[in-house]
Amino acid sequence: MAEVIRYEHVDISYKGKRVVHDVSFSVEKGEILGIVGESGSGKSTLVKAAMGLLGRDGLVSRGDIWYKGMDLPDLKPGEMRKLCGPELGMIFQTAGSSFCPIRTVRAQLYEFMTEHKKIKMDVFEKQAEELLEKFGFDDPKRVMDSYPFELSGGMQQRVGIAAAMFLNPKILMADEPTSALDVTVQKQVIEEMLMVRKTFGTSILLVTHNMGVIRAMADKVLVLHEGEIMEYGVTEEVFEQPQSAYTKKLLAAVPKLRR
Ligand SMILES: Nc1ncnc2c1ncn2[C@@H]1O[C@H](COP(=O)(O)OP(=O)(O)OP(=O)(O)O)[C@@H](O)[C@H]1O
Fold it and tell me: Which terms in the Gene Ontology molecular function aspect does this entry carry (predicted)?
């Protein structure tokens, strides 16, 4: 299988204080990697580093993040902007908060789309409807006519994922995409992301503190503790035979869930 992104001995600091240390892993086409660990272990920092989202205080101080022969932390902001969306998509804990409340879903999706490519409204409309149908929305026109506040949190999150897939990115970075949702809606969002992988062959980096979500979705899992890798391997194996004491402790704290 083709490798799409590779982290090599990555250190990341904020204001000179190192919060991620010597992290290496790679993700193949269509693979879902779960990144799990306690709050503050550096999960979000890892994915933000690939997207150029560390902010002014953050820096990849050592190592490389390779994507299509480019070392992402070395890219200029303009070069990075071109990749974000069409190559590297991102969904957050609350997609709803990234929608503007007083403009329709249609207007916002169209704006998102035209930031990256020229497309006429009627062509966009057709493509958007087809995409939303793929995501299980029976009445895509109604969704497009809606204002975000008219949709439930779960619907907003699902529209957020569909929006990220408009540009068909090769990698989807999902930072706690289910944490703000109740359990039944979590399941829908998990199914939606699995559909994304199946339909589009997208690789997914999934950040979560929820071991159940990892077990339900991830092919491989990377366990992070205080910025260092405690364990990295095939999900089933890590769950059945964890090697590190830290992973054992994490697993002991969650009820068993089946795929
Ligand atoms: N902008 C920032 N400036 C300074 N320190 C930061 C910044 N962002 C994160 N940190 C610190 O970096 C460390 C890792 O944070 P990060 O948000 O990546 O962890 P996380 O595992 O994603 O946590 P959570 O599950 O709570 O989101 C923490 O100690 C955090 O306080």
Answer: ATP binding; ATP hydrolysis activity
Residue 259 lies in a domain: no
Domain count for the chain: 1
Percent of the chain, pLDDT > 90? 62
Buried b (16+ CB within 10 A) or exposed e, 39-70: eebbbbbbbbbbbbbbeeebbbebbbbbbeee
Protein residue whose Cα sits closest to atom 12 of ligand 1: 19
- Flag whether 90 is in a domain: yes
Q: Residue 152: exposed, middle, or buried by beta-carbon count in 10 A (0-12, 13-18, 19+)?
A: exposed
Residue 45 CA, closest ligand 1 atom number:
18
Q: Is 141 within the bounds of a domain?
A: yes
Please write the tens of the pLDDT for every residue from 28-40: 999 999 999 999 9
CATH number for the domain harbouring residue 239: 3.40.50.300
Neighbours of 241 (CB within 10 A): 10
Domain range for 90: 3-253
Q: Which of 89-98, 168-177, 224-233 has the highest mean pLDDT?
A: 224-233
- For residue 155, the model assigns a pLDDT of 85
Element (H, E) at 111: helix 105-116
Under the banding of pLDDT at 50, 70 and 90, the label for residue 259 is: very low
Q: How far apart are CA 240 and CA 102, in angstroms?
A: 48
pLDDT by residue (tens digit) across 142-170? Answer: 999 999 889 888 888 888 888 888 889 99
pTM across the whole model: 0.91
* Ligand 1 cavity residues, CB under 6 Å: 14, 19, 37, 39-45, 55, 57-58, 209
